[in-house]
UniProtKB/TrEMBL annotation:
<dbReference type="InterPro" id="IPR031311">
    <property type="entry name" value="CHIT_BIND_RR_consensus"/>
</dbReference>
<keyword id="KW-0193">Cuticle</keyword>
<keyword id="KW-0732">Signal</keyword>
<dbReference type="Pfam" id="PF00379">
    <property type="entry name" value="Chitin_bind_4"/>
</dbReference>
<dbReference type="InterPro" id="IPR000618">
    <property type="entry name" value="Insect_cuticle"/>
</dbReference>
<dbReference type="GO" id="GO:0008010">
    <property type="term" value="F:structural constituent of chitin-based larval cuticle"/>
</dbReference>
<dbReference type="InterPro" id="IPR050468">
    <property type="entry name" value="Cuticle_Struct_Prot"/>
</dbReference>
<protein>
    <recommendedName>
        <fullName>Larval cuticle protein 1</fullName>
    </recommendedName>
</protein>
<dbReference type="GO" id="GO:0062129">
    <property type="term" value="C:chitin-based extracellular matrix"/>
</dbReference>
<feature type="signal peptide">
    <location>
        <begin position="1"/>
        <end position="18"/>
    </location>
</feature>
Length: 134
């Protein structure tokens, strides 16, 4: 019972500190990872129809999302955020029968040897592979 009382006192003390804390005005603060929990939705749109959908989101900590889709399950859009270094990151994407295909400066390039291997595999995918078993 004593341990429970200690936990309750610590919890009440933490709540009291949180209630007293007043953050600086938004325009004078640098956004950090801890500020994400205090982000507010500035705008949001969700339009779902029989022939597809359109959706968008913008938050006070500079997270954005815009996407649209059709009745066949094809989706295209973009999302973005501010990196811890202060750089705006934006990823554009298409998701269709060929899978999820993101593009953007923040996505590392495929190494040349991997690209050559993928191209060779695609060109020879129709060939049957024979394994020699000894």
């Amino acid at each position: 019972q004593f341990r429970f009382l200690q936990v309750m006192i610590c919890a009440l003390f933490g709540l009291a500190l949180a209630a007293v804390h007043q953050p600086a005005p938004q325009e004078h603060r640098v956004v950090s990872h801890g500020d994400d929990v205090h982000a507010e939705v500035l705008s949001r749109k969700d339009d779902v129809r029989a022939d597809g959908f359109d959706a968008s989101l913008e938050t006070s900590n500079h997270i954005t999302r815009q996407d649209s889709g059709d009745e066949h399950g094809n989706i295209q859009g973009s999302y973005g955020w501010i990196s811890p270094e202060g750089q705006h990151i934006e990823i554009k994407f298409v998701a269709d029968e060929n899978g999820y295909q993101p593009t953007g400066d923040a996505i590392p390039a495929v190494p040349e040897h991997v690209a050559r291997t993928l191209a060779w595999n695609a060109a020879h995918s129709h060939e049957e592979v024979h394994h020699n078993v000894h």
